[in-house]
Amino acid sequence: MEWTAPAVVLEVRPHGEGGAVVTLLTEEHGRHAGLAKGGSSRAQAGLWLPGNLIEARWIARLADQLGAVSGEMVHPAAALAMEDPLALALLSSACAIAADALPEREPHPRAFRALVSVIAHMAGGAGEVLADYVRWEALVLSELGYGLDLSACAVTGVREGLTHVSPRTGRAVCADAAAPYLDRLLPLPTLLLADDPGDPAGWDAGLRLTGHFLERDAFGARHRPVPEARHRLADRVAALAGDA
């Protein structure tokens, strides 16, 4: 059994003497782990950093084995993000969610392509891709069967003026219908309705919205906590929104 494919490094754990168990995300093979010989060595440490885009090669005698993995660097996203705490927090959050929420060896090509796009466009800073990152979290929810319904107001059926989301059903609500229940609803930022770069307040609202359903459904349904890396990103963005 063997395949070669572009991949995002999601996580790495030391294994044995100098080895590492590496978890990758690929378009065709989904979340996939492998044993990298020498993966914990100084020579390979930079390759297996979470967030890096690599060309991966996986080999095993049988399909259900852990297998051996090797790789070549395509884009050193982790190193490039080191100078930007917000970018590093975003990268860490994305990798942690993908590693823990997406089923093993189950292809989710849309989530893979969207994540690669976020990583590839981070060169201009985290602010350039935070809206895309929020949309990626909403896509992950959809891929897992917990998609938000933002197509029309759940109460009136109108498709314009959508401003909030029901935390119970995940359906959008228009401003008029939401008015009496604002304290019970989650704000819906325009960046989830259009290709809008947003601002700190919108990013914060978006993360609060997707975070509610990640916690309740994607992770809560399996009795697992949302990764700490995701909380750290949300805290940074909330601080940005408070300072704006």
Automatic annotation (TrEMBL):
Q: Which residues form the DNA replication/recombination mediator RecO N-terminal domain?
A: 1-75
Asked whether the UniProt record includes Transport among its keywords, one would answer: no
- Which InterPro entries does the record match to this protein? ARFGAP/RecO, DNA_rep/recomb_RecO_N, NA-bd_OB-fold, RecO, RecO_C
Kindly indicate whether the keyword Acetylation belongs to this entry: no
UniProtKB keywords: DNA damage, DNA recombination, DNA repair
Pfam families per the UniProt record, alphabetical: RecO_C, RecO_N
The UniProt function text for this chain reads: Involved in DNA repair and RecF pathway recombination.
User: What's this protein's family per the entry?
Assistant: Belongs to the RecO family.
Q: What is this protein called?
A: DNA repair protein RecO
Give the species this sequence originates from: Neoroseomonas terrae
Gene name of the record: recO
